[in-house]
Design brief:
InterPro entries: SsuA/THI5, TAT_signal, UCP027386_ABC_sbc_TM0202. It holds the Pfam family NMT1. This is ABC transporter substrate-binding protein. It comes from Oligella ureolytica. The protein contains 13 helices and 12 strands. By secondary structure, the chain is of the alpha/beta class. The strands form 4 sheets. Strands 8-7-9-6-10 form a 5-stranded mixed beta sheet. The chain has a 3-stranded antiparallel beta sheet with strand order 3-11-4. The protein has a two-stranded parallel ribbon with strand order 1-2. Strand 7, helix 5 and strand 8 form a beta-alpha-beta unit. It is globular and about 55 Å long.
């Protein structure tokens, strides 16, 4: 994949990548959205299973991707997006700003890695004085890095950060040796490692494992993203959401057991080569954990973000009714 396609993948200004409608017993399909990242592939698996008659979901639905957080926020605000996988803190921020939205589940326990030369760092402290490309300032990878640095007593200001407007550009900085490290989400991490294979590089730090270590493995991981719905969408499609959640709960295991088929589904949805999708599956911590079952993990994560800056969450911790009980 050339640089132009990477930039389109990470920063295009339009919703795209619709997968074929999964037809069921109703004629008006719903649309569920997601980012161009691995959790959205779980929606694609559910849709394909329905289209093949292997699902209990009765309502027809289709999956589309949004390319930038701004498109997501605009779509939720104007009603064109009513159900979407979102960064978990974005859902809280929207709710605290008056939007009636609810979190259904968590669909990844963290898919962020720092990549760099093999054996070059053992911990975040080793990044002080070194250069790191970080995509999307004050977005999820940056915020997670800041939180972890604070917990581990690392001086974030001593890390030489180069912020980029898209994840693809952070990867490009790193591939061109303009920085020693970069922080990326899957599947871009796998793509970067494939392209730099001859340089002797690896995932030097996994942020989910760092988060678990900090909390003595009493947390499932970083509740990075999950399915968010508007209240009206839930009220009008309660049965669909329950059935979708049941189907999604089987999708992570199916993805691990069927990596080639999952990569084929993901490649069509995300416009990413199948080998990169396949390579990224074991590293994406995919899940479909009901938000009610992830409440403690969510509160732990949101508290850490709030301590950095309350504005990240829209000025307050989420209210109890932000978590939807299906």
């Amino acid at each position: 994949m050339d640089r132009r396609r990477f930039l389109q993948y990470a920063g295009a200004a339009a919703i795209s990548s619709q997968i074929p409608v999964a037809w069921a017993n109703t004629s008006s399909p719903l649309t569920v959205y997601g980012p161009t990242a691995l959790p959205t592939v779980l929606l694609g698996i559910a849709a394909q299973h329905q289209s093949q008659g292997q699902s209990t979901i009765q309502q027809a639905f289709q999956v589309q991707t949004w390319r930038t957080p701004d498109i997501l926020r605009a779509g939720l605000a104007n009603g064109t997006i009513q159900a979407s996988i979102v960064p978990s803190y974005v859902g809280v921020n929207l709710a605290n700003r008056g939007m009636d939205v609810k979190l259904v589940n968590i669909m990844t326990w963290g898919l962020v890695d720092i990549v760099g030369p093999k054996g070059s760092v053992q911990n975040l402290k080793d990044l002080e004085g070194r250069s790191v490309a970080v995509p999307l300032r004050n977005d999820m990878p940056d915020l997670v890095l800041q939180v972890l640095c604070k917990f581990q007593g690392v001086d974030f200001k001593k890390i030489h950060i180069t912020y980029t407007p898209t994840p693809a550009e952070a990867m490009t900085y790193w591939l061109n040796d303009r920085v020693e490290f970069t922080i990326l989400n899957e599947p871009l991490t796998s793509i970067a490692l494939m392209r730099a294979r001859s340089k002797g590089v690896e995932r030097v730090l996994n942020l989910t494992e760092l988060w678990r270590d900090i909390h003595d493995h009493k947390t499932q991981g970083l509740p990075q993203a999950g399915l968010l719905v508007t209240k009206s969408f839930y009220e009008q499609n309660t049965l669909f959401l329950k059935q979708l959640q049941e189907e999604l709960q089987t999708a992570p295991a199916w993805a691990l057991e069927n990596p080639a088929k999952t990569a084929q589904i993901g490649s069509k949805m995300l416009d990413i080569p199948s080998p990169a999708i396949k390579a990224s599956i074991p590293h994406a911590h995919l899940a479909a954990t009901a938000a009610t079952e992830a409440r403690d993990d969510l509160e732990l994560f949101f508290s850490a973000l709030y301590d950095i800056n309350p504005k990240i969450l829209g000025g307050a911790m989420p209210k109890d009714d932000f978590i939807l009980a299906l």
